[in-house]
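Last lecture ended with a question: if I hand you only a sequence, what can you say about the shape of the protein? Today we answer it with a concrete record. The protein is Exo-alpha-sialidase. Below, first the input exactly as provided, then the predicted structure, then a couple of comments.
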Amino acid sequence: MARGTVVMVGTRKGLWVGRSDEAREQWTLSGPHFAMEEVYSCLVDTCGGRVRLLAGASSTWLGPQVWRSDDLGETWEQTPGGAVRFPEDVDSSVERVWQLVPGAEEGVVWAGTEPGAVFRSTDHGETFTLERALWDHPHRAQWGEGFGGQAFHTVLPHPTDPASVTVAISTGGVYQTSDGGASWRPRNVGIKAEFLPEGEQFPELGQCVHKVTRHPARPERFYLQNHGGVYRSDDHAATWTSIADGLPSDFGFPVVVHPHDPDTVYVFPLGDGRFPPEGRARVWRSRDAGESWEELGEGLPDGVWAAVVRDAMCTDEHAEAGVYVGARNGTVWCSTDAGDTWRTLVADLPDVVVVRAAAV
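The predicted structure:
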């Protein structure tokens, strides 16, 4: 039986949900859901054979809320009390939910928030508990705020070891637990903080990491897009090596790994002004873990002066992998051949901040 495809597009003014078959040539979109709310995080949770959509929306008046749908976006239900909230003894409040990702165990969902905190759910995203040791980490006072705010924008549970989770925050860097959250240590060796003075550019913490990803078949390998720098780690984030040679710019926000090949990775470089270099929207792909890069542009336009932010690029899990890119001009481009060719999935939406897709 042919499989279907669902894509979630979160914007600064609501969420759109697209549905297609496995060919992904024709799409039906519904939306806006949560109109006038910022949707910074989405998740198509297919763990355990179920399909649940989760969306982290933020209202100017009501604050953040995690919504859930078990019918592919036809109807939505609020989570109790907004779901992601600090305990009463913490003098802070969640402003945005920046990240929603599934865990290695049935029912586990992770959330990363602004201000910088990580939460864990064991009931498919209906309730969340603060990772207290990370919130109480002695480094927290030194974590700064990137241009978009201080937030844990990356949460990467180990695919087979529930006690191991890797996270990243702007600006603070990469942190990791191997004991189920009882302790967290920085994992930033080799990542350059180019904005610091000469001689101080490789600190223990304080890097402006933009995004980190890894492949479940090779969990010790990570790829990282930094504020100036693209990196790979082959030792579970203990050390990092630059793989930026061959790219038109080492600045960008997203980094995405192919769903079936841990050696294939995608980035979207940005030049001066945080535009695509020369206004040419281009994805760059490496098929040898960053040793070399190729420009992918067939079907992508020129004259694009809009950025692609950290969570606005993703893949699906079809045998012929789909790649999706959303820009701040409200356009989402889709490739159904791993990036070789592209077409416009939707245009003229509000500012796109997150795209998530899955085979269902």
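Comments.
1. DSSP finds one helix and 28 strands in the chain.
2. The mean pLDDT is 95.
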